[in-house]
Amino acid sequence: MSTPHVTDDLGADQAEQVLALAEAARRQDGVAPLSEHTVLRVRHGAPSGSGRFHVVTRDGRVVGFAFVERAEGEPDSGELVVDPAHRAGGHGAALLDSVRDDAGPRGVRVWAHGRTPRAAGLAASHGWRPVRELHKMRMPLRDLSADEPGGPRTAPELPRAEVRPDIADRVEVRPFVVGKDEQAWLRANARAFADHPEQGQLTLDDLLQREAEDWFDPQGFFLATAADGSVAAFHWTKTHADGAGLTDGEPVGEVYVVGVDPEWQGTGLGRTLTLRGLHHLREAGLPWVHLYVDGDNEAAVRLYTSLGFEVWDTDVMYAPSSEAVDRGAA
Question: Which of 135, 151, 227, 231 is the most buried (most CB within 10 A)?
């Protein structure tokens, strides 16, 4: 076991090694160990003071990695991964201790992607407890045969994506326009996710990084805009070329993020924009669509279930118990 090196910046070589390590873990475990947000931080760096990288090396190669994001007034949020070829060597435990000892004043929480026995065992052995669940839900977009992954399945009928008559003359539903809609979308996103520590704090740089990704398609990013140009609601879809664990490599879709400005809540725009995006993904011929939703967001879970989604897997966030925090401070 090696002591993790903690830094605000990764060099280019270490960043490439971290991404290769994460891909090896994805192939081994069947689930990506790092979120898109963390991958972008690895590639582009984190704004000053907002992130910490924890790196375990052996013979000059990265064999373990954790990233922790810091947000004002919130606990730190992190993820960690160990190279499959170097597991059972104490590296995961070292990383968990490192992110706990380096935590900000409100402590730290760590995501485990997929409810895997290995992650649950590591957390339990260190006195960390589950504090949040993020459900992965999926729905077939076409009828699947018994020969297809996840099949046989019958795709549900999708209602038409219609704006309610009482607000139809107040909003326009259209695709996102690069170079025009960024600031309006950022304002709507911040308002819609004011209580969401990750999504609500996205910056222009974060948005531009995503626009530069191969998967970005403004034709699948739908806005409901008001007469003054403000964004009332939005649905950003995404296509995963690698199948996202749902297929053996055939692209699948994602309900990437749906948001409604608080002034427009209760107008049905969230459902309308969700359906607009689902029709878009179905028309693209994709076999599956998936999404993430907080386990305690009962209204959203009911909405997605009513459309034909089912819970497929669950990501779990762990936090140190008071006993673990006290032991780390001693």
Answer: 231
